[in-house]
Specification:
Elements: H1 2-9, E1 16-22, E2 28-34, H2 41-44, H3 57-61, H4 67-77, E3 83-87, E4 91-98, E5 125-129, H5 133-143, E6 149-153, H6 156-166
Parallel strand pairs: 5-6
Antiparallel strand pairs: 1-2, 2-4, 3-4
Length: about 170
Amino acid sequence: MNLLGNAIKFTDKGEIALEVRETDNGRICFTVRDTGTGISSEELEKIFDPFHQTGTREKRAEGTGLGLSVSHNLVSLMGGNLDAESRPGTGSTFRFDLELSEVPGPEMLCETKQEVIGMRGIPPKILIVDDNPENRAVFRNMLSPLGAELSEAGDGRDSFRNWYKNNEL
């Protein structure tokens, strides 16, 4: 998800592709390719370092510089290797392969499927706090149909103002 999110963030126009295929040795190879801004060779050497960010100041403000480092370490822990190829102005390609276990057949799956359709009693009051409006919308869309009473805040300070406004002492 991090690789796709970065591809979207750094590709204003063009295309983004996700390819998943089985390799000759039975591993599953994931490739994310974009036609975005690309990364210089100097930056590419440091791209998996913690807190390293590339791109414009506006793009850097959208993240912490941990996503690629965490992804690289996670893939490594799973027995794979995450690598990247890129050139400024032509886009980037990130690739890793993993040995994945076979998913159990239908006989192993649970027969009953329960769907949450609401909540009993007094609806809970939930404050959704995130600086990204799209992330807040995801939670709002999940919780609203269940009957929760929702409020939103864009940061910690805004969340305290919201709480004090709704819970006067």
